[in-house]
Amino acid sequence: MQRQMVMVGFLQAQNCTNLVSSWRHPESRTDTWSPEYYADLGRVLEAGKFQVAFFDDRLAMPDRYGNDHRHTVEHGIRCVKMDPVTVMMVMGMATKRLGLGSTRSTTYYEPFDVARTFATIDLMTNGRAAWNVVTSMNDGEALNMGKDVHPEHDSRYDRADEFMEVVMGHWTSWDDDAIVQNKETGLFAHGDKVRRIDHKGKFFQSRGPFTVPRSKQGHPVVIQAGQSGRGKQFAARWGELLFVGSPPTLELGRKNYKEIKEAVAAQGRNPDHCIIAPSAYIICAETKMEAEDKAALTERLTTEIDALSLLSEAMNFDFASKGMDEPFTDDELDHISGTQSMRDRVLASSGIKNPTPREFVKYSHRARPNKPFIGGAKEVADGLEEWFSTGICDGFVVAATHVPGTYTEFVKYVIPELQRRGLYHKDYRGETLRENLGLPIPRIGA
Ligand SMILES: Cc1cc2nc3c(=O)[nH]c(=O)nc-3n(C[C@H](O)[C@H](O)[C@H](O)COP(=O)(O)O)c2cc1C
């Protein structure tokens, strides 16, 4: 069978899309905190046979800039952030086949809690759940979740590794054939087919036994998006659906894809059971010219304050503490405790050793769509096909300039063209997310 693309909707349970300016877009819906919004959006994605609707998350509004939230609220910079797991369930109830992924942080939750939440979602959606494992980003999240500062970058991944050991322990502690439910004999489940994990480690203790049986797909699909050296190592060990940033060049995209697949194999895993999907903005319309007009409108809606605020948030550094043209010192660059890959990307793409805030805004593409695919069906499909067919990715995390517009237009114009080329499925293969992603069911005991 011809290899086919995986499509993931890059969604937010917030007042804007990943692109802050989206709330100002004339065609954006203004009821982003209503259940109808998410139910309608789920139906659009399912009509387009998207395999996954994915909700990102952060546990604070981006108030790192100037250590003040007033600008965040005034400019609508992701200041509404609902619990994505709850919102995702609204979408789950409005759909039948669409996979449902949501983010939970290993830095600020307990593994038993996360294991139970996602195992429950997996049962309540008939095996369509996925968990995006993140280690979180900044002090705002720490301050909301009972800590003073966000822990150091690599140590977060050490904790995350142990977190996963506990979660996987719980998710594999009921055998698939544990439940008998025999009303005559009175046996509900085999006592020896449900085990404790008795975990006592450096960061966590969790005894078990776990309290949720396994779903049709075994356990939720694990999503991960580590981009640093340590993050990629973690992703290669645990991730089944791996998100990557938009590559700076196609060559680097190919190199990254190859390295990730090799890292997955080095962990003793089958690289085919690991799907790599970069985030990609799509601006499409009936004609190329119309799409270009739309892209120009999006460009006009972006502002510098959005970018500075999001840079401060992601890198966990207050950009207001520097003049716009004042270069970062070596020491400041060395001690970025947030997203180091963003720093590295700016250094690499600008060729500047000590960039200024203005240069960070320019080269990071924060608050602007990063190299969007723009055009009618043909141009966008050509672009996606090139990435997919030349070793850059297995699918796309489709980011929106406005909602529902980006998705309704993508489903209307681009999806049929990809289907015509045989690059995208015409219907869901099965009921569970694993079936629809071509991932095996992790079997236990039976
Ligand atoms: C498509 C995509 C979605 C992401 N979603 C989240 C998210 O919801 N929450 C979060 O804290 N980080 C999110 N991240 C960030 C990653 O988890 C990761 O921290 C980041 O890519 C930097 O890599 P590093 O942690 O190895 O430094 C996302 C990254 C990508 C590419």
Q: In a few lines, what is going on in this structure?
A:
The protein contains 16 helices and 13 strands. By secondary structure, it is an alpha/beta fold. α14 crosses α15 (405-420).
Highlighted features:
eight-stranded parallel β-barrel, 2 domains, two-stranded antiparallel sheet, single chain, alpha/beta, binds flavin mononucleotide, 13 strands, 446 residues, TIM Barrel
Characterize the structure shown.
- The mean pLDDT is 96.
- The longest helix is centred in the middle third of the chain and has 19 residues, at 153-171.
- It contains 16 helices and 13 strands.
- It folds into 2 domains: 6-302 and 369-437, TIM Barrel, CATH 3.20.20.30; 303-367, no CATH class.
- The chain has helices at residues 35-47, 70-74, 84-93, 111-124, 139-144, 153-171, 229-238, 250-266, 288-301, 304-315, 330-334, 340-350, 357-364, 377-389, 405-420, 433-437, and strands at residues 6-11, 52-55, 99-105, 129-134, 179-182, 187-189, 199-200, 205-206, 221-224, 241-244, 275-284, 373-375, 395-399.
- The strands form 3 sheets. The protein has an 8-stranded parallel barrel, surrounded by 6 helices.
- It is globular.
- Bound molecules: flavin mononucleotide.
- Flavin mononucleotide (FMN) binds next to strand 4, strand 10 and helix 12.
The CATH architecture of the largest domain can be named as: Alpha-Beta Barrel
Encode the helix/strand succession as letters: EHEHHEHEHHEEEEEHEHEHHHHHEHEHH
CA-to-CA gap between the ends? Answer: 30 Å
The CATH superfamily of the largest domain bears the name Luciferase-like domain
Largest sheet features:
8 strands, parallel, barrel
The computed structural class is: alpha/beta
Strand content: 5-15%
What is the highest CATH level, the class of the largest domain? Alpha Beta
Our Rg estimate from Cα atoms comes to 22 Å
Bound molecules: flavin mononucleotide
Percent range for helical residues?
A: 25-40%
What's the number of helices?
16
